[in-house]
């Protein structure tokens, strides 16, 4: 169909004069060429009717309908410039006019209209209308053809059935009745009322077409507006409000929310459904949640939780109070410890320490105090009093001390001659006064060269032996010290003759001159034990040591060594400590015997010998450096000393015989010689082959030859084959590069190898062995069998194998088996997963191969830039933080899961109490001074503040109890200023109290200092300026001014 055909058809249809009356009840009022609209999920879109298609893909640009009204729509009326409308599928009919109603006049009118058309009617270069007929349809019924209606058509009445047999049959087809019945009762197309738009049944209904009729039923959750009438466009299906019409549908303690076509049940706050796996209803009701069983506690620590129906109550344990007393105790307003030491003034009384504990407190007396009554706890009625520690026994200061009591403490001091054991600590029973050891603690208390003797509290000094006090009339101390006595000045000498006297501090020392000794060596040298000459040569052992001569001299002696001996240290005289030692000529006299000799030292002398293989040059003379030992050359002296097939090696002092390689001595038990020569060895006869395993051995004169068997090679190719360099198997799989070719497995065997194709590969030519010229090639499973992985999957071939992967949103039907045609990939209903793929607080909608996630009301994606998932779950929207000032100023916002609550803070109230608190209905300040009558009580001033108020007593009044705030229970009472200890009126005045004030008047004879000011302490009453005369005695007058 193109635009020219459409234009001709439109011109033909538009040639009618509208409205055109067909019958008394039928008029044609409008003729349009349109597309067709259909509801597509959320909007109406243009589409082609049945048996029609878009001619090209460009037609798809006409997608959305022009307008929608009451659930139906009006489609595009204007034709596209390129004529791209829906076109009919290939058919035998070009124009098919179906009547949705039947009327004889209409049939006659159409027949006359069609007969007036000149045939053929050219619609385009390729389309002509050549024949127009109105007929019934023939169909085979057993053995003959009968007139019948087409599919979806019916006879308008039973009389139609009189036209049963067709006029004639031609080539297996039939010609139907050409003439119309006089009453015009032709076949009439069944009208599918269910296709009408708007629906004949009305919205929210289901329409079922029937031949010649239709049936309407309401969708679930809907019912007929009038149950006594059939469902129709005039008796539509209305929503069933289950929350109203079905008694207690959700059960007790629940909230029912009607929705269009359905309803939702929620448990009220503080309740939960009995069985969470089933929906809430009257059989699965909402039961009370015992919040007190929650862990952690809903009340927080240090609290008592009391469950209530649909709620709970929290109380703080003794010694605890709510963190914020203006809010209910909850997990976010927990019970905090009451610090009695701060809150309760002087709770423990004076001279005490208060220690707060969790939920309580402890009182202790400070050091030096004790509770008045030890049978009662410490408090401000049973206070801590001073302890007189100096009355304690034993003394708190310990022995050798003085104790002085002080308020709350005491002081300790040591007696003279005593001090605290630890000077860094105070004196006490644990740090007592110890005796001062003046001999130790007072540096040099007695002075040098003295002896100090400590006694309890005092000390004594004496001079040491060999010392005497400087001034014998004064006591010994560091100012009158002990000085040394020089005994060597005494005459005669205290040491006697032939001696040396050496004075020492506090003593003296006597020693004999060299060569002398004390007459009695067991006694010290003194004048009565003098020094005499020593005959050192008589001493045993000898003073000169062994191997020496000793000559005595007065006061001394002389030592000399025997021949062949010398002083151990030649720089020192010969003594017992520097003995005469043997002279080792073999060591100390260089090369005394000459080379190739052996020197043997003897005591006082030595001997020389030639080494084996050497002889003295002149045997008539002794061996020496001038008559040395020379080598005996055995290999020159006897050419055949070693025999055949041998080597003779001469070296200094000896010779050696060696068989040539490949030869051995005839008698291995004897040395090689001419009579026991070297003969050839047949190495190939050795039981342990000289060539090693996997080798051939060939004997040769004096040698042998080794070669490896096939499939073997020498271990070290740079060396000959031998027992230590054997023939090893040639690992063709390693040593011959790519011997089997790629994608193969090479299996080495002893002396050979095998080739196998790896899994997923096959040999190129199966008639030939596997090698680099006939390699293993990949088996392309994905080409060999397209369905190897089954539907909804990807097949990935790679060298040696293949892999199957399910498309995203699909999984293998049997998770224990691999993907295959027999175990294909099927759609995953991700919404059935537990835990949910969307995470908590979300809705999951499964779609083929995927799923969609959306957050419940009051929740939002954790990361709004990402899709909702188990890793980007729906978090609670904390409206209190995320929506700026949601509750407005002067309010408290409490976030709840999926929602929030607003409260006004203390001292504020919502502007409109009929509306919820919000930024548009804010919390305003409560003027307590106006709204709460007499809030401060009488004689007071109330001052409103933002969120609170203050009370003050009026001048001349004071609060009844100064420890409590001013209020109607603690009112302001009058102050009687006249009772003040210092008179408010000053001296010489009367004070009269009045309510809220007082009055002052001067006593008789006095007047106020400044009459323009009231009498006060600053403006006192003074005497009046008159003169009094007092007569005490005659002639004496005293004047007072």
TrEMBL record:
Residues annotated as domain EGF-like = 190-228, 239-277, 288-326, 337-375, 386-424, 435-473, 484-522, 533-571, 582-620, 680-718, 729-767, 778-816, 827-865, 876-914, 925-963, 974-1012
GO BP terms: namely: epithelial cell differentiation
- GO MF terms, alphabetically ordered: calcium ion binding
Q: Which UniProt keywords apply?
A: Disulfide bond, EGF-like domain, Glycoprotein, Repeat, Signal
Pfam name, any one: EGF_CA
Matching entries from PANTHER family are given as:
ADHESION G PROTEIN-COUPLED RECEPTOR E1, EGF-LIKE DOMAIN-CONTAINING PROTEIN
- Record's protein name: EGF-like domain-containing protein
């Amino acid at each position: 169909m193109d635009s020219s055909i459409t234009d001709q058809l439109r011109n033909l249809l538009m040639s009618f004069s509208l409205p055109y009356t067909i019958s008394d009840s039928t008029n044609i009022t409008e003729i349009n060429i349109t597309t067709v609209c259909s509801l597509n999920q959320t909007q109406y879109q243009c589409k082609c009717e049945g048996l029609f298609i878009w001619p090209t893909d460009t037609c798809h640009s006409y997608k959305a309908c022009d307008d929608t009204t009451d659930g139906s729509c009006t489609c595009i009326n204007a034709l596209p410039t390129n004529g791209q409308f829906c076109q009919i599928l290939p058919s035998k009919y070009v124009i098919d006019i179906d009547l949705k109603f039947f009327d004889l006049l209409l049939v006659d009118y159409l027949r006359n209209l069609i007969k007036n058309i000149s045939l053929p009617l050219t619609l385009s270069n390729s389309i002509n209308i050549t024949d127009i007929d109105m007929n019934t349809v023939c169909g085979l019924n057993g053995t003959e053809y009968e007139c019948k209606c087409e599919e979806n058509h019916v006879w308008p009445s039973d009389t139609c059935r009189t036209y049963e047999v067709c006029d004639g049959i031609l080539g297996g087809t039939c010609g139907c009745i050409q003439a119309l019945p006089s009453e015009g009762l032709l076949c009439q197309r069944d009208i599918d009322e269910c296709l009408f738009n708007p629906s004949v049944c009305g919205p929210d209904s289901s329409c079922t077409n029937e031949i010649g009729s239709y049936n309407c039923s309401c969708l679930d959750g809907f019912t007929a507006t009038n149950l006594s009438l059939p469902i129709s466009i005039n008796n539509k299906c209305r929503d069933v409000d289950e929350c109203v019409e079905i008694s207690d549908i959700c059960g007790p303690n629940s909230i029912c929310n009607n929705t269009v076509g359905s309803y939702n049940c929620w448990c009220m706050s503080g309740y939960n459904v009995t069985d969470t796996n089933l929906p809430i209803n009257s059989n699965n009701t909402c039961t009370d949640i015992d919040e007190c069983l929650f862990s952690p506690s809903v009340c927080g620590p240090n609290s008592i939780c009391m469950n209530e129906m649909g709620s709970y109550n929290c109380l703080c344990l003794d010694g605890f109070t709510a963190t914020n007393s203006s809010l209910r105790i909850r997990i976010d307003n927990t019970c905090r410890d009451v610090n009695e030491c701060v809150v309760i003034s002087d709770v423990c009384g004076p001279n005490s320490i208060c220690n707060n504990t969790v939920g309580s407190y402890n009182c202790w007396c400070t050091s030096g105090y004790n509770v008045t009554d030890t049978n009662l706890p410490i408090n401000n009625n049973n206070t801590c009093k001073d302890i007189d520690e100096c009355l304690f026994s034993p003394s708190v200061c310990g022995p050798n001390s003085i104790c002085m009591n002080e308020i709350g403490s005491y002081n300790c001091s040591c007696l003279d001659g005593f001090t605290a054991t630890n000077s860094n600590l105070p004196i006490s029973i644990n740090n007592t006064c110890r005796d001062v050891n003046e001999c130790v603690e007072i540096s040099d208390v007695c002075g040098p060269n003295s002896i100090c003797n400590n006694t309890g509290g005092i000390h004594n000094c004496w001079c040491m032996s060999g010392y005497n006090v400087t001034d014998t009339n004064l006591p010994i101390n560091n100012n009158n010290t002990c000085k040394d006595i020089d005994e060597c000045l005494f005459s005669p000498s205290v040491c006697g003759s032939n001696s040396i006297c050496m004075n020492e501090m506090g003593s003296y020392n006597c020693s004999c001159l060299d060569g002398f000794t004390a007459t009695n060596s067991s006694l010290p040298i003194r004048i009565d034990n003098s020094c005499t000459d020593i005959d050192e040569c008589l001493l045993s052992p000898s003073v000169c040591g062994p191997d020496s001569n000793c000559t005595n001299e007065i006061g001394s002696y002389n030592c000399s060594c025997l021949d062949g001996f010398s002083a151990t240290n030649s720089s020192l005289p010969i003594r017992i400590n520097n003995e005469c030692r043997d002279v080792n000529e073999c060591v100390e006299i260089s090369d005394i015997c000459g080379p190739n000799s052996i020197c043997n030292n003897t005591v006082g002398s030595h001997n020389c010998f030639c080494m084996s293989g050497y002889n003295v040059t002149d045997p008539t003379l002794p061996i020496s450096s001038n008559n040395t030992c020379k080598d005996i050359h055995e290999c020159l002296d006897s050419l055949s000393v070693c025999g055949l097939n041998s080597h003779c090696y001469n070296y200094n002092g000896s010779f050696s015989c060696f068989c040539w390689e490949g030869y051995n001595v005839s008698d291995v038990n004897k040395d090689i010689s001419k009579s026991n020569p070297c003969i050839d060895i047949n190495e190939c006869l050795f039981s342990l082959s000289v060539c090693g395993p996997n080798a051939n051995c060939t004997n040769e004169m004096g040698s042998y030859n080794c070669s490896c068997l096939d499939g073997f090679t020498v271990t070290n190719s740079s060396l000959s084959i031998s027992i230590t360099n054997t023939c090893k198997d040639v690992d063709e799989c390693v040593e011959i590069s790519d011997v089997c070719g790629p994608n193969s497995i090479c299996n080495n065997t002893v002396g050979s190898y095998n080739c196998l194709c790896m899994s997923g590969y096959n040999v190129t030519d199966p008639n030939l062995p596997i090698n680099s010229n006939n390699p293993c090639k990949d088996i392309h499973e994905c080409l060999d069998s397209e369905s190897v992985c089954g539907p909804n999957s990807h097949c990935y071939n790679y060298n040696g194998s293949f892999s199957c992967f399910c498309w995203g949103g699909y999984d293998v039907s049997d998770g224990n088996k691999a993907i295959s045609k027999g175990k294909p990939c099927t759609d995953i209903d991700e919404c059935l997963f537990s835990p949910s793929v969307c995470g908590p607080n979300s809705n999951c909608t499964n779609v083929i191969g995927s799923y969609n996630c959306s957050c419940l009301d009051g929740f939002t994606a954790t990361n709004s830039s990402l899709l909702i998932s188990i890793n980007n779950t729906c978090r609670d929207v904390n409206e209190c933080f995320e929506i700026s000032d949601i509750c407005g100023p002067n309010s408290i916002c409490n976030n709840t899961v999926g929602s929030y609550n607003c409260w006004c803070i203390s001292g504020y109230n919502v502007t409109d109490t009929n509306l919820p608190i919000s930024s548009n209905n804010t919390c305003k300040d409560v003027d307590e001074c106006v709204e709460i009558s007499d809030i401060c009580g009488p004689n007071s001033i109330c001052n409103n503040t933002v969120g609170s108020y203050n009370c003050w007593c009026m001048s001349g009044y004071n609060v009844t109890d100064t420890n409590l705030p001013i209020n109607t229970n603690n009112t302001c009472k009058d102050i009687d200023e006249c009772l003040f200890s210092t008179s408010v009126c000053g001296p010489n005045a009367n004070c009269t109290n009045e309510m809220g004030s007082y009055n002052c008047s001067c006593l008789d004879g006095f007047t106020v200092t400044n009459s323009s000011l009231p009498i006060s302490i600053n403006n006192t009453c003074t005497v009046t300026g008159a003169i009094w005369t007092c007569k005490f005695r005659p002639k004496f007058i005293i004047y007072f001014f």
